[in-house]
Amino acid sequence: MTTPAVRCAGLRHAFGDTVAVDGVDLEIPAGRIFGLLGPNGAGKTTTIRMITTLLPAKAGAVEVFGLDAARRKMRVRRLIGYVPQQLSADGALSGRENVALFARLFDVPRRERAEQVDNALGAVGLRSDADRPASTYSGGMIRRLELAQALVSAPRLLILDEPTIGLDPVARSSVWERIEQVRADTGMTVLVTTHYMDEAEQHCERVALMHRGKIRALGSPAELRAELGPGSTLDDVFRAVTGDAFDDADKGGIRDVRAARRTARRLG
Ligand SMILES: Nc1ncnc2c1ncn2[C@@H]1O[C@H](COP(=O)(O)OP(=O)(O)OP(=O)(O)O)[C@@H](O)[C@H]1O
Protein backbone atom coordinates (compact mmCIF):
# COMPACT_ATOMS: atom_id res chain seq x y z
CA MET A 1 0.00 0.00 0.00
CA THR A 2 1.31 3.48 -0.82
CA THR A 3 2.11 5.79 2.06
CA PRO A 4 -0.66 8.34 2.52
CA ALA A 5 0.24 12.02 2.11
CA VAL A 6 -1.13 12.76 5.57
CA ARG A 7 -2.11 10.58 8.49
CA CYS A 8 -3.58 12.12 11.65
CA ALA A 9 -4.25 9.93 14.66
CA GLY A 10 -6.10 11.15 17.74
CA LEU A 11 -5.18 14.73 16.91
CA ARG A 12 -6.25 17.29 19.49
CA HIS A 13 -5.73 20.96 20.18
CA ALA A 14 -7.36 23.37 22.63
CA PHE A 15 -7.06 27.12 23.03
CA GLY A 16 -7.69 27.52 26.76
CA ASP A 17 -11.14 26.01 27.31
CA THR A 18 -12.00 25.93 23.60
CA VAL A 19 -11.35 22.50 22.15
CA ALA A 20 -10.71 23.35 18.50
CA VAL A 21 -9.70 19.86 17.32
CA ASP A 22 -11.07 16.93 19.25
CA GLY A 23 -9.54 13.56 18.39
CA VAL A 24 -9.20 13.70 14.61
CA ASP A 25 -8.28 10.52 12.75
CA LEU A 26 -7.72 11.20 9.08
CA GLU A 27 -5.90 9.66 6.14
CA ILE A 28 -5.33 11.67 3.00
CA PRO A 29 -4.29 9.54 0.00
CA ALA A 30 -1.36 10.78 -2.07
CA GLY A 31 -1.97 12.41 -5.44
CA ARG A 32 -5.59 13.43 -4.89
CA ILE A 33 -7.52 16.62 -4.20
CA PHE A 34 -8.91 16.23 -0.69
CA GLY A 35 -11.44 18.66 0.80
CA LEU A 36 -11.75 19.40 4.49
CA LEU A 37 -15.21 20.90 4.79
CA GLY A 38 -16.95 22.52 7.69
CA PRO A 39 -18.56 25.73 8.86
CA ASN A 40 -16.75 28.59 10.51
CA GLY A 41 -15.03 27.48 13.71
CA ALA A 42 -15.24 23.74 12.91
CA GLY A 43 -11.50 23.33 13.49
CA LYS A 44 -10.24 23.14 9.90
CA THR A 45 -7.54 25.81 10.13
CA THR A 46 -6.29 24.46 13.45
CA THR A 47 -6.02 20.97 11.91
CA ILE A 48 -4.12 22.36 8.93
CA ARG A 49 -1.75 24.34 11.12
CA MET A 50 -0.87 21.14 12.99
CA ILE A 51 -0.27 19.31 9.69
CA THR A 52 2.05 22.12 8.55
CA THR A 53 3.92 21.88 11.91
CA LEU A 54 3.14 25.56 12.65
CA LEU A 55 1.12 24.53 15.70
CA PRO A 56 2.17 21.70 18.00
CA ALA A 57 -0.49 19.06 18.66
CA LYS A 58 -1.60 18.83 22.31
CA ALA A 59 -2.21 15.12 21.77
CA GLY A 60 -2.09 12.65 18.92
CA ALA A 61 0.22 12.46 15.95
CA VAL A 62 0.61 13.74 12.40
CA GLU A 63 2.61 12.02 9.69
CA VAL A 64 3.34 13.62 6.33
CA PHE A 65 4.44 11.05 3.73
CA GLY A 66 5.36 8.80 6.64
CA LEU A 67 7.44 11.41 8.48
CA ASP A 68 6.48 12.29 12.04
CA ALA A 69 5.61 16.02 12.02
CA ALA A 70 6.69 16.56 15.63
CA ARG A 71 10.13 14.94 15.30
CA ARG A 72 10.98 15.75 11.66
CA LYS A 73 9.60 19.27 11.55
CA MET A 74 12.06 20.75 9.04
CA ARG A 75 11.85 17.82 6.64
CA VAL A 76 8.06 17.91 6.78
CA ARG A 77 8.03 21.68 6.11
CA ARG A 78 10.07 21.14 2.96
CA LEU A 79 7.40 18.81 1.60
CA ILE A 80 4.60 21.33 2.03
CA GLY A 81 3.42 24.42 0.17
CA TYR A 82 0.92 26.37 2.25
CA VAL A 83 -1.45 29.16 1.25
CA PRO A 84 -3.03 30.53 4.43
CA GLN A 85 -6.27 32.54 4.55
CA GLN A 86 -4.35 35.71 5.37
CA LEU A 87 -2.82 37.63 2.51
CA SER A 88 0.76 36.65 1.92
CA ALA A 89 1.57 38.77 -1.15
CA ASP A 90 3.20 42.21 -0.97
CA GLY A 91 1.44 44.83 -3.08
CA ALA A 92 4.55 46.95 -3.52
CA LEU A 93 6.42 44.11 -5.24
CA SER A 94 5.75 42.73 -8.70
CA GLY A 95 4.27 39.27 -9.06
CA ARG A 96 7.68 37.94 -10.05
CA GLU A 97 9.39 39.57 -7.05
CA ASN A 98 6.78 38.11 -4.70
CA VAL A 99 7.37 34.60 -6.01
CA ALA A 100 11.18 35.10 -6.01
CA LEU A 101 10.97 36.06 -2.34
CA PHE A 102 9.35 32.72 -1.56
CA ALA A 103 11.94 30.91 -3.69
CA ARG A 104 14.67 32.42 -1.48
CA LEU A 105 12.74 31.66 1.71
CA PHE A 106 12.39 28.04 0.70
CA ASP A 107 16.03 27.71 -0.35
CA VAL A 108 15.40 27.02 -4.00
CA PRO A 109 19.00 26.78 -5.31
CA ARG A 110 20.17 30.13 -6.69
CA ARG A 111 20.90 28.88 -10.23
CA GLU A 112 17.42 27.32 -10.53
CA ARG A 113 15.54 30.23 -9.02
CA ALA A 114 14.72 32.37 -12.08
CA GLU A 115 13.46 29.36 -14.01
CA GLN A 116 11.41 27.95 -11.11
CA VAL A 117 9.86 31.37 -10.47
CA ASP A 118 8.93 31.71 -14.13
CA ASN A 119 7.51 28.17 -14.20
CA ALA A 120 5.39 28.81 -11.10
CA LEU A 121 4.04 32.05 -12.62
CA GLY A 122 3.30 30.20 -15.85
CA ALA A 123 1.49 27.42 -13.99
CA VAL A 124 -1.00 29.92 -12.53
CA GLY A 125 -1.38 31.94 -15.75
CA LEU A 126 0.40 35.08 -14.54
CA ARG A 127 3.46 35.16 -16.76
CA SER A 128 2.29 38.13 -18.85
CA ASP A 129 1.35 40.14 -15.73
CA ALA A 130 4.39 39.10 -13.72
CA ASP A 131 6.31 42.36 -13.93
CA ARG A 132 3.71 44.81 -12.69
CA PRO A 133 3.03 45.54 -9.01
CA ALA A 134 0.76 43.07 -7.24
CA SER A 135 -1.23 46.09 -6.00
CA THR A 136 -2.71 46.30 -9.54
CA TYR A 137 -3.94 42.66 -9.49
CA SER A 138 -7.57 41.58 -9.10
CA GLY A 139 -8.59 39.32 -6.18
CA GLY A 140 -8.43 36.21 -8.35
CA MET A 141 -4.97 37.13 -9.63
CA ILE A 142 -3.72 37.67 -6.07
CA ARG A 143 -4.99 34.23 -5.12
CA ARG A 144 -3.21 32.73 -8.13
CA LEU A 145 -0.05 34.65 -7.18
CA GLU A 146 -0.23 33.13 -3.70
CA LEU A 147 -0.61 29.74 -5.34
CA ALA A 148 2.58 30.41 -7.35
CA GLN A 149 4.39 31.38 -4.13
CA ALA A 150 3.46 28.01 -2.63
CA LEU A 151 4.35 26.10 -5.81
CA VAL A 152 7.81 27.57 -6.36
CA SER A 153 9.49 25.10 -3.99
CA ALA A 154 7.85 22.16 -5.84
CA PRO A 155 6.03 20.78 -2.76
CA ARG A 156 4.61 17.27 -2.67
CA LEU A 157 1.67 18.45 -0.59
CA LEU A 158 -0.10 21.72 -1.36
CA ILE A 159 -2.34 23.01 1.44
CA LEU A 160 -4.86 25.73 0.63
CA ASP A 161 -6.99 27.34 3.33
CA GLU A 162 -10.19 28.69 1.73
CA PRO A 163 -8.54 29.41 -1.65
CA THR A 164 -11.64 30.92 -3.24
CA ILE A 165 -13.20 32.85 -0.38
CA GLY A 166 -14.42 36.32 -1.32
CA LEU A 167 -13.88 35.75 -5.05
CA ASP A 168 -16.52 36.11 -7.76
CA PRO A 169 -17.61 32.93 -9.60
CA VAL A 170 -15.34 33.57 -12.61
CA ALA A 171 -12.25 34.08 -10.41
CA ARG A 172 -13.24 31.05 -8.31
CA SER A 173 -13.32 28.80 -11.34
CA SER A 174 -10.03 30.17 -12.66
CA VAL A 175 -8.36 29.38 -9.32
CA TRP A 176 -9.78 25.84 -9.40
CA GLU A 177 -8.74 25.38 -13.02
CA ARG A 178 -5.13 26.14 -12.03
CA ILE A 179 -5.24 23.89 -8.97
CA GLU A 180 -6.51 20.97 -11.07
CA GLN A 181 -3.98 21.60 -13.84
CA VAL A 182 -1.06 21.70 -11.39
CA ARG A 183 -2.24 18.50 -9.75
CA ALA A 184 -2.58 16.77 -13.11
CA ASP A 185 0.86 17.98 -14.26
CA THR A 186 2.79 17.20 -11.09
CA GLY A 187 0.78 14.52 -9.27
CA MET A 188 1.04 16.50 -6.06
CA THR A 189 -1.47 16.02 -3.28
CA VAL A 190 -3.80 18.95 -2.62
CA LEU A 191 -5.51 19.50 0.72
CA VAL A 192 -8.06 22.27 0.60
CA THR A 193 -10.49 23.68 3.13
CA THR A 194 -13.67 25.25 1.89
CA HIS A 195 -17.07 26.43 2.99
CA TYR A 196 -18.40 25.97 -0.51
CA MET A 197 -20.03 22.55 -0.73
CA ASP A 198 -20.61 22.98 -4.47
CA GLU A 199 -16.87 23.47 -5.06
CA ALA A 200 -16.04 20.41 -2.99
CA GLU A 201 -18.57 18.36 -4.93
CA GLN A 202 -17.09 19.49 -8.23
CA HIS A 203 -13.35 19.42 -7.52
CA CYS A 204 -12.53 17.14 -4.57
CA GLU A 205 -12.09 13.40 -5.00
CA ARG A 206 -12.51 12.80 -1.27
CA VAL A 207 -13.91 14.98 1.48
CA ALA A 208 -14.09 15.01 5.26
CA LEU A 209 -16.95 16.86 6.94
CA MET A 210 -15.78 18.52 10.14
CA HIS A 211 -18.01 19.89 12.88
CA ARG A 212 -17.07 21.09 16.36
CA GLY A 213 -13.57 19.65 16.22
CA LYS A 214 -14.52 16.19 14.98
CA ILE A 215 -14.66 14.46 11.59
CA ARG A 216 -18.30 13.48 11.10
CA ALA A 217 -18.15 11.88 7.64
CA LEU A 218 -15.46 10.80 5.20
CA GLY A 219 -15.59 9.58 1.61
CA SER A 220 -16.05 10.71 -1.96
CA PRO A 221 -18.85 13.25 -2.40
CA ALA A 222 -20.76 10.67 -4.46
CA GLU A 223 -20.37 7.96 -1.78
CA LEU A 224 -21.54 10.28 0.99
CA ARG A 225 -24.58 11.38 -1.01
CA ALA A 226 -25.41 7.81 -2.03
CA GLU A 227 -25.41 6.69 1.61
CA LEU A 228 -28.14 9.21 2.33
CA GLY A 229 -30.26 8.40 -0.69
CA PRO A 230 -31.05 9.63 -4.18
CA GLY A 231 -31.25 13.35 -4.78
CA SER A 232 -29.37 14.29 -1.61
CA THR A 233 -26.68 16.99 -1.54
CA LEU A 234 -23.54 17.36 0.57
CA ASP A 235 -25.50 19.93 2.60
CA ASP A 236 -28.05 17.20 3.38
CA VAL A 237 -25.22 14.84 4.40
CA PHE A 238 -23.82 17.52 6.70
CA ARG A 239 -27.24 18.04 8.30
CA ALA A 240 -27.74 14.30 8.71
CA VAL A 241 -24.40 13.69 10.45
CA THR A 242 -24.38 16.79 12.66
CA GLY A 243 -28.04 17.62 13.19
CA ASP A 244 -27.20 21.20 12.16
CA ALA A 245 -27.86 23.01 8.92
CA PHE A 246 -24.51 24.00 7.43
CA ASP A 247 -25.49 27.68 7.33
CA ASP A 248 -26.81 27.67 10.92
CA ALA A 249 -23.62 26.05 12.15
CA ASP A 250 -21.74 28.87 10.50
CA LYS A 251 -23.07 31.45 12.97
CA GLY A 252 -22.26 34.32 10.59
CA GLY A 253 -18.52 34.32 11.17
CA ILE A 254 -17.87 33.51 7.56
CA ARG A 255 -19.31 36.89 6.61
CA ASP A 256 -16.43 38.52 8.47
CA VAL A 257 -13.88 36.38 6.63
CA ARG A 258 -15.52 37.13 3.30
CA ALA A 259 -15.54 40.82 4.05
CA ALA A 260 -11.89 40.66 5.06
CA ARG A 261 -10.91 39.03 1.80
CA ARG A 262 -13.09 41.42 -0.16
CA THR A 263 -11.36 44.46 1.32
CA ALA A 264 -8.05 42.76 0.69
CA ARG A 265 -8.92 42.13 -2.92
CA ARG A 266 -6.72 44.96 -4.03
CA LEU A 267 -3.38 45.29 -2.39
CA GLY A 268 -1.47 48.44 -1.69
N1 LIG B 1 -5.55 31.49 18.23
C1 LIG B 1 -6.72 31.15 18.77
N2 LIG B 1 -7.03 31.49 20.04
C2 LIG B 1 -8.19 31.12 20.60
N3 LIG B 1 -9.14 30.41 19.97
C3 LIG B 1 -8.90 30.04 18.71
C4 LIG B 1 -7.68 30.39 18.04
N4 LIG B 1 -7.73 29.87 16.78
C5 LIG B 1 -8.91 29.24 16.68
N5 LIG B 1 -9.63 29.34 17.83
C6 LIG B 1 -10.95 28.74 18.08
O1 LIG B 1 -10.87 27.36 17.75
C7 LIG B 1 -12.06 26.92 17.07
C8 LIG B 1 -11.69 26.35 15.72
O2 LIG B 1 -11.17 27.41 14.89
P1 LIG B 1 -10.58 27.17 13.43
O3 LIG B 1 -10.06 28.48 12.95
O4 LIG B 1 -9.69 26.01 13.44
O5 LIG B 1 -11.90 26.81 12.62
P2 LIG B 1 -12.15 26.78 11.07
O6 LIG B 1 -12.99 25.61 10.80
O7 LIG B 1 -10.86 26.88 10.35
O8 LIG B 1 -12.97 28.10 10.79
P3 LIG B 1 -12.57 29.34 9.85
O9 LIG B 1 -13.13 29.01 8.53
O10 LIG B 1 -13.23 30.48 10.51
O11 LIG B 1 -11.08 29.48 9.86
C9 LIG B 1 -12.97 28.14 17.02
O12 LIG B 1 -13.86 28.06 18.12
C10 LIG B 1 -12.03 29.30 17.16
O13 LIG B 1 -12.69 30.40 17.77
Outline the structure in words.
The protein is α/β, with parallel strands linked by helices and 268 residues long. The protein has one domain (6-263): P-loop containing nucleotide triphosphate hydrolases (Rossmann fold). It contains eleven helices and ten strands. It has helices at residues 44-51, 73-79, 95-105, 110-123, 139-151, 169-186, 197-203, 221-228, 234-242, 246-250, 253-263; strands at 6-15, 18-28, 33-37, 59-64, 67-68, 80-83, 157-161, 189-194, 206-211, 214-219. A six-stranded mixed β-sheet has the order 6-7-8-3-9-10, sandwiched between helices. Strands 2-1-4-5 form a four-stranded antiparallel β-sheet, with helices on one face. Strand 4 and strand 5 form a beta hairpin. The longest helix is centred in the middle third of the chain and has 18 residues, at 169-186. The model is unreliable at 251-260 and 262-266 (pLDDT under 50). It binds adenosine-5'-triphosphate. Residues 15, 18, 20, 38, 40-46, 253, 257 line the site of adenosine-5'-triphosphate. Keywords: Antibiotic resistance, ATP-binding, Nucleotide-binding, Transport. Residues 6-237 form the ABC transporter domain. It is found in: Cell membrane. This is ABC transporter domain-containing protein. It is a peripheral membrane protein.
